[in-house]
């Protein structure tokens, strides 16, 4: 019965295909307070809030570049799968919807998937991806599906002292949320699909 209900929900989901570059300004402006980066592997899904990212073209492909600290639970899952979704809100939402989205974004940024099931805690509705095995998030319906085609760990020696001190304070353990001593892995994800969940 539960499977039948899930199929009925999936049948009612509409995805409006979009031109990612047309929506790039909206996605990038959503970094404050943040958008969700979702990953999934081995029957586990996790969404984390990101405030850094870039949309562009590399190797002739549309690319989303994101940064994930080495100690994050999302980093562990992404290393197993190599796929992710970027989930951003739509402009023009009413105030009540905006409040809910802000609560989701703030909550997913202040908690770890190691400790809680964020989908259950914050009421996230997972919508199956079309070209990736990672779900989109219905509450943040502007969705990019991405497959990692290149990754690298940061070389902190290449950063100016000011950025190192602000973003990688050595006295703050890597398990701390926000700025801490952990470096990031930089992921280049080919955008293989882009849509709005309706």
Description:
With 198 residues, the chain is α+β, with helices and mostly antiparallel strands. The protein contains six helices and ten strands, in the order αβαββββαβααβββαβ. The strands form two sheets. Strands 1, 2, 3, 4, 5, 6, 9 and 10 form an eight-stranded antiparallel beta sheet that branches. β4 and β5 form a beta hairpin. It starts with a helix and ends with a strand.
What topology emerges from the helices and strands here?
Elements: H1 2-11, E1 15-17, H2 20-29, E2 35-41, E3 44-50, E4 54-58, E5 61-69, H3 73-81, E6 83-88, H4 95-110, H5 118-122, E7 126-127, E8 136-137, E9 142-153, H6 161-167, E10 184-197
Antiparallel strand pairs: 1-10, 2-3, 2-6, 4-5, 5-10, 6-9, 7-8, 9-10
Please count the beta strands (DSSP E, at least 2 residues each).
10
Q: Unreliable stretches, pLDDT < 50, 5 or more residues?
A: 1-9
State the secondary-structure class.
Answer: alpha+beta
- CA gyration radius, whole angstroms: 17 Å
Q: Which sequence of SSEs, written as H and E, runs from N to C?
A: HEHEEEEHEHHEEEHE
The termini sit apart by 25 Å
Could you tell me the strand content as a percent range? 25-35%
Helix content: 25-40%
Helical stretch count? 6
Task: Summarize the main sheet.
Answer: 8 strands, antiparallel
Shape: globular
Overall mean pLDDT stands at 89
